[in-house]
Automatic annotation (TrEMBL):
Keyword DNA-binding carried by entry: yes
Top-level EC class as recorded in UniProt: ligase
Molecular function via GO: biotin--[biotin carboxyl-carrier protein] ligase activity; DNA binding; DNA-binding transcription factor activity
UniProt-listed Enzyme Commission number(s): 6.3.4.15
Gene that encodes it: birA_3
Superkingdom in the source lineage: Bacteria
PROSITE patterns the UniProt entry points to: HTH_DEOR_1 (PS00894), HTH_DEOR_2 (PS51000), WYL (PS52050)
Source organism of the structure: Microbacterium azadirachtae
Keywords: DNA-binding, Ligase, Transcription, Transcription regulation
Residue ranges occupied by any HTH deoR-type domain in the UniProt entry: 4-59
Protein name: Bifunctional ligase/repressor BirA
Length: 318
């Protein structure tokens, strides 16, 4: 160590790894005595760092949680990874401003020898458009709402919110991020039914502070459940089609998150599909390459007619 200040920074870096470290281990890593380590621990505490100490065979020192976020010490690889990760997160609805602030803080203190690497990655790596499945804009999600939902899941407390103008009370279990949208998997405490809810459609009410006894989903696969139910409940618009094909033939051609198939007989089925706009529905159902009849909504029919006329003109002009 070149001096007390450098040693304190090295000690802080060791304590930020998460696992407890014994005084002997810290002394060996820093090349000082155990007495010096104890003095440096007290100095960090005086500076406002909450260093916790535990006794016993598995005891040691670790950095605890404080009233505010202390400065973080990152090694070179960690600093590059965090910076590139924040650069890659650009455009995610609901956290863009927060992401930009965090990135600016890290870039401001990057060591000179790391700047060429970070700048090279930032200037040579492009991000392809991710929202390619719809013409609708990405939904805005309030980060505070995500934190509140996650806290209710962590604390196993009932969650109350308005959903499409209706009051809802649920037992929250999992958050799922998919297709740049956030979904909550939850259980109705009244009838025991399970559902998936779009977080950007929620208007949260005051926290209930009422704990519940978890009743896990049968099978325990919350992601699979959400992916199955998003097709029927996770889109702004839905369409019901009668398809002149066996149910299995339709299932073989669609993603389960965008369609629920109900067999009618050996050669016909009903497809309930959805998207965030009817134009997206109109474009995608043509990819079935099967005959179908629109049962609902009637607003879908003019869009299909417009597409058919354009396709017909394209064929006529070829």
């Amino acid at each position: 160590m070149t001096g007390p200040s450098a040693r304190l920074l090295a000690l802080l870096s060791l304590l930020q790894t998460g696992s407890a470290r014994t005084g002997t281990e810290l002394a060996e890593r820093l090349g000082v005595s155990g007495r010096t380590v104890r003095a440096d621990i007290e100095r960090l505490r005086e500076l406002g760092y909450p260093v916790d100490a535990t006794r016993g065979a598995v005891g040691g020192y670790r950095l605890g949680a404080g009233g505010s976020l202390p400065p973080l010490l990152l090694d070179d690889e960690e600093a590059v990874a965090v910076t590139v990760g924040l650069q890659a997160a650009a455009g995610i609805a609901g956290i863009e401003d927060v992401r930009a602030r965090a990135l600016a803080k890290i870039e401001q203190v990057l060591p000179a020898h790391l700047r060429p690497t970070v700048e090279a990655l930032g200037s040579t790596v492009d991000r392809g458009q991710e929202n390619v499945g719809t013409d609708a804009p990405d939904p805005e999600v309030d980060p505070a709402a995500l934190r509140a939902v996650a806290a209710a899941i962590r604390d196993t407390e009932w969650l109350r919110f308005d959903y499409e103008d209706a009051p809802v009370l649920v037992e929250p279990y999992r958050l799922l991020s998919w297709q740049r949208r956030w979904h909550l998997v939850a259980r109705d405490p009244q009838d025991g039914s399970w559902g998936t809810y779009r977080v950007d459609w929620m208007t949260l009410r005051m926290p209930t502070r009422r704990p519940f006894t978890p009743q896990p989903l049968a099978g325990g696969d919350y992601t699979a459940f959400a992916m199955r139910t998003i097709a029927a409940s996770g889109w702004k618009v839905h369409a019901r089609l009668r398809v002149d094909a066996p149910a299995q033939s339709v299932l073989d051609r669609i993603n389960p998150t965008v369609g629920v198939v109900e067999p009618l007989d050996a050669d016909h089925c009903v497809l309930v599909t959805g998207a965030d706009s009817l134009d997206t529905v109109a474009a995608y159902i043509g990819m079935l390459m099967m005959d179908f009849t629109v049962e609902s909504p009637p607003e879908l029919i003019p869009r299909l007619r417009l597409l058919s006329e354009r396709y017909a003109r394209a064929v006529a002009g070829s």
